[in-house]
Specification:
Layout lengths: L1 E8 L2 E8 L1 H18 L12 H31 L4 E7 L12 E9 L13 E7 L2 H14 L2 E4 L8 E8 L4 E8 L6 H7 L7 E5 L9 H6 L3 H4 L5 E13 L5 H8 L7 H35 L6 H11 L6 H27 L6 H18 L7 H11 L3 H23 L2 E7 H9 L1
Parallel strand pairs: 5-11
Antiparallel strand pairs: 1-2, 2-4, 3-4, 6-10, 7-8, 7-10, 9-10
């Protein structure tokens, strides 16, 4: 077998593969002999079918199959040994005069080659790196939420301005009948507030859905209907009161601190506020890091210029999907995917240049950290190490989970690299200002 590469330009090449009879004949003969031993053909005893008949029935199919295997194996080996960085897969060139009756065969494949380029992480214009801080207002709100959550309910005879009401929403036309807990503090409509104040168990109030709550998302849960249906909903619903309670906030005492964080971990309101600030800012750091990753990605795509073998890639998209695409459809798909492909190449270059790797042991530790944080959400704050180890082993036996966790860990490594080497401008903001600045 002979394989040669013909360079068309920096981004395109042709690989020519010549296969002779000596390359495949022994393998084909062996397979046909095995067929002869096993063949059941009417008029012949098993194993006694003439080889000529075996070749006539199976020879061409076996030949084609073995030549294709030989071709694929050796082409892949050639690309690896020659260290050719190809995009997509080699595309076989159409040969109108190809003849499977010949003894020697010649094949040609088009290659799209990855471009050569350099990545400078220190961009000329600095990238904003946000540090989101928990301000006094946020901490006060969190303390208030904790006190309410762990407080006690006191039954009331009539609705007051800060009470919690259990009742059933109904609207026959929209097929709504849903029991909900309505917090007066979250009701926005003044007409609704006035209508509810002073009402007693058994009373029914008619409420308009539009503008009922301070936060629009609350309406979906209250009515028990999908969020997408809520967006354009502007109807009247009846609300029949079944229970009225006032929530008395819990005291900020050692009993509450121990319930929240374990015995004597927190011993004062000041320490509680410091813990809330610390925990909140850890969560905010993940959002700020994701924003940084996105911004660095966009900046690198914008500033690092290189050509792609677009003609090859469009042809590859057109012919290698589940269904063949028209030239126009392939062009559209290429336009959609070009930006992502550019970043894949840039990211690959960054990973290679900086020697970033993921070892299985660190992936397992990363998985254990992820599992631990999930368990904490369900109140399991101190899982045993062997329990974490067993769960992580099960998770990592799933290749989809391995891929997902590897991508997350790689993102963390890239963020750490960008923090170290990119041109960043730090900016401290509250969470509210971060949301306004980033999401408008």
């Amino acid at each position: 077998m002979n394989i040669q590469k013909e360079q068309i330009d920096e981004l395109n090449a042709i690989v020519k593969v010549a296969i002779t009879k000596d390359d495949y004949s022994d393998k084909v003969d062996k397979i046909l002999k095995d067929y002869k031993k096993q063949a059941n053909i009417p008029g012949f005893r098993k194993g006694q079918v003439p080889m000529g008949l075996i070749k006539k029935q199976y020879g061409k199919a076996v030949l084609v199959d073995e030549v294709n295997k030989l071709l694929q194996d050796n082409l892949n080996k050639y690309l690896t040994e020659e260290k050719l960085d190809v995009l997509g897969n080699p595309l076989p060139k159409q040969q109108d005069n190809f003849n499977w009756e010949a003894e020697d065969f010649s094949f040609e494949f088009e290659l799209g080659l990855a471009p050569n380029f350099e990545v400078a992480l220190k961009t000329k214009k600095p990238i904003t790196h946000y540090k989101i801080v928990a301000d006094k207002k946020m901490i006060d709100e969190q303390v208030d939420r904790i006190r309410k959550q762990y407080g006690k309910l006191i039954s009331k005879s009539e609705v007051g301005k800060n009470d919690e009401i259990t009742g059933t929403f109904k609207n026959e036309e929209e097929e709504i009948e849903h029991k909900s807990n309505l917090e007066m503090s979250k009701v926005k409509s003044k007409k609704a507030i006035d209508g509810l104040r002073g009402k007693k168990v058994g009373d029914t109030v008619i409420l308009k859905t539009k503008g009922l709550f301070k936060e629009d998302y609350l309406l979906s849960g209250a009515l028990g209907i999908p969020k997408e249906k809520v967006d354009k909903l502007n109807i009247e619903v009846s609300f029949t009161i079944e229970e009225i309670n006032e929530r008395e906030s819990a005291n900020l005492d050692q009993e509450l601190f121990d319930k929240l964080f374990g015995k004597d971990t927190i011993t004062s309101e000041k320490a509680l506020r410091e813990r809330i600030k610390e925990d909140s800012e850890k969560q905010f750091e993940q959002q700020a890091d994701q924003k940084l990753l996105n911004d660095v990605t966009e900046r690198l795509i914008d500033t690092i210029k290189f050509d792609l073998p677009s003609g090859f890639l469009k042809k590859w998209i057109q012919t290698t999907g589940e269904k063949s695409l028209s030239e126009e459809e392939a062009n559209d798909e290429y336009e959609k995917s070009e930006k992502g492909l550019r970043y894949q190449l840039i990211e690959g270059k960054i990973i290679k240049d900086n020697g970033i790797e993921i070892q299985f042991d660190e992936l397992k530790e990363f998985a254990k950290g992820f599992i631990k944080s999930q368990m904490a959400q369900y109140g399991q704050l101190n899982p045993q190490e062997d329990e974490l180890d067993n769960i992580a082993t099960r998770v990592l036996s799933n290749q989809d989970e391995v891929k997902r966790l590897s991508e997350q860990l790689m993102s963390q490594k890239l963020i750490s690299l960008y923090k170290e080497k990119a041109n960043l401008k730090k900016k401290e903001v509250t969470y509210d200002n971060f949301v306004k600045e980033v999401y408008g």
